[in-house]
Automatic annotation (TrEMBL):
The keyword Nucleotidyltransferase applies. It is an enzyme of class 2 (transferase). It comes from Antrihabitans spumae. Residues 245-381 form the GGDEF domain. It comes from the Bacteria. The chain crosses the membrane at residues 48-68, 80-98, 104-124, 131-150, 156-175, 187-208. NCBIfam families: GGDEF. InterPro entries: Diguanylate_Cyclase, GGDEF_dom, Nucleotide_cyclase, Rev_trsase/Diguanyl_cyclase. This is Diguanylate cyclase domain-containing protein. Keywords: Membrane, Nucleotidyltransferase, Transferase, Transmembrane, Transmembrane helix.
């Protein structure tokens, strides 16, 4: 750059944007559970599980082929290690197919095992050049870490891959038939695929995931929006079943909220919305789904014994109506219930069931408003099971 040339503001802005993106990626939290729930909400759990099982099966093929080639280890210890790698890879494949989805810790163990197994198989290959070529297998594990783990585990995995590539490139370059040009060329291509590509993919994926999460959340209160409610409600309704449990949807509307905005200003109105969101959260279960559907309307969705629905709705009403230093407010509350079986079909069917339940809860909420506000009204579904009918009558 010429000393007389001033820095281009556009270039500086681009560099700052890149730096901000990298910083956001580096500090992004690892949310293994969120990804599991996202896959389940899109009915992708089984296809992804099958894909990972195939990756593990491919890792079993590599040592198997290594045992059959003329470059197989000529000592018992080396052959035994290849057999162990083959058997454990097959075991992981079956684990992904048959077992429950692993925890974040179990997933990390899978990555650690795979990295060690690939390194051992490549180092045991009698031909260093073939072993170097085999390090491209790290791409499979790098892709897995890219989507299921955060930046720090990915960087650790990439560092291990890089060390393995270098360890295999050295004998290719310095051996009896050493070929430095070939070693450098092979290592360069492998590093580009195994070490350079995964961070780029993960940074892009992190930005996309961040946007996806933001699209599900109300920016003011941090509660879910309508789309987020639809996504999370499917997971809640399809969770662990307990005898007698039903899906309960509670619709909450703040009374005369427009008057607060008109007389005290929108900043006070926002304060009331935030306060109400906190108070609702304080009286529901941690697993309950909370959403703000716009304006002054909130929704709580939970799976509870039928007899607890009235009590929960009343707790919410009382919490919102509690004394406040500024702009006290009351709420009209309505709720409806349904059998969990209505949510057992496809994702589209479950969303339809949710919308019908929401309509009925809204109808009950408006009945509470017509009856004088600051009260609870209910619209309970037709539950055919006789024990549930008895519970309704009680």
């Amino acid at each position: 750059m010429s000393p007389d040339r001033l820095p281009d503001p556009t270039e500086q802005s681009a560099l700052m944007n890149v730096g901000e993106v990298v910083r956001e990626w580096w500090v992004s939290p690892v949310d293994f559970q969120w990804l599991r729930e996202f896959l389940a909400s899109r009915s992708l759990t089984d296809p992804v599980r099958l894909l990972i099982a195939l990756i593990a099966a491919l890792l079993a093929v590599v040592p198997a082929l290594g045992l059959l080639t003329h470059d197989a280890p000529d000592h018992i210890a080396g052959r035994a290690l290849l057999v162990v790698a083959m058997v454990t890879a097959a075991a992981w494949s079956v684990r992904w197919l048959r077992g429950p989805w692993p925890t974040a810790f179990g997933s990390a163990l899978f990555v650690i095992w795979a990295d060690i197994a690939i390194t051992v198989c490549c180092l045991l290959h009698g031909n260093a050049l073939s072993g170097l070529a085999g390090t491209t297998t790290f791409v499979l594990i790098g892709a897995y870490v890219t989507f299921f783990h955060g930046p720090r585990p990915l960087c650790a995995q990439l560092a291990w891959s890089l060390l393995t590539v270098v360890a295999l490139a050295i004998p290719v370059a310095t051996g009896p038939d050493g070929d430095p040009a070939t070693a450098i060329g092979k290592a360069f291509v492998t590093i580009a695929a195994v070490v350079v590509l995964p961070p780029i993919l993960q940074i892009s994926y992190t930005l996309i995931r961040s946007d996806a999460v933001d699209s599900l959340v109300d920016p003011l209160t941090g509660l879910l929006n309508r789309r987020g409610l639809q996504t999370q409600s499917i997971q809640l309704a399809r969770g662990q079943r307990v005898a007698g449990d039903t899906v309960v949807l509670i619709s909450i509307d703040l009374d005369r909220f427009k008057t607060i905005n008109d007389t005290l200003g929108h900043s006070v109105g926002d304060e009331v919305l935030l306060r109400s969101a906190r108070r609702i959260r304080s009286v529901v279960r941690s697993d309950a789904v909370l959403a703000r559907l716009g304006g002054e309307e909130f929704v709580v969705l939970d799976v509870l014994p039928l007899t607890h629905a009235d009590e929960l709705a009343e707790r919410i009403r009382v919490a919102i109506s509690a004394k406040a230093d500024r702009a006290p407010v009351t709420a009209s509350v309505g709720f409806a219930i349904a059998k969990r079986d209505l949510f057992a079909g496809s994702a589209a069917d479950a969303v339809d069931a949710l919308e019908q339940l929401l309509d009925r809860a809204d109808t009950a909420m408006y009945e509470a408003k017509r009856a004088g506000r600051d009260r609870v009204s209910r619209d309970i579904a037709d539950i055919r099971d006789s024990s549930d009918d008895d519970a309704l009558e009680s």
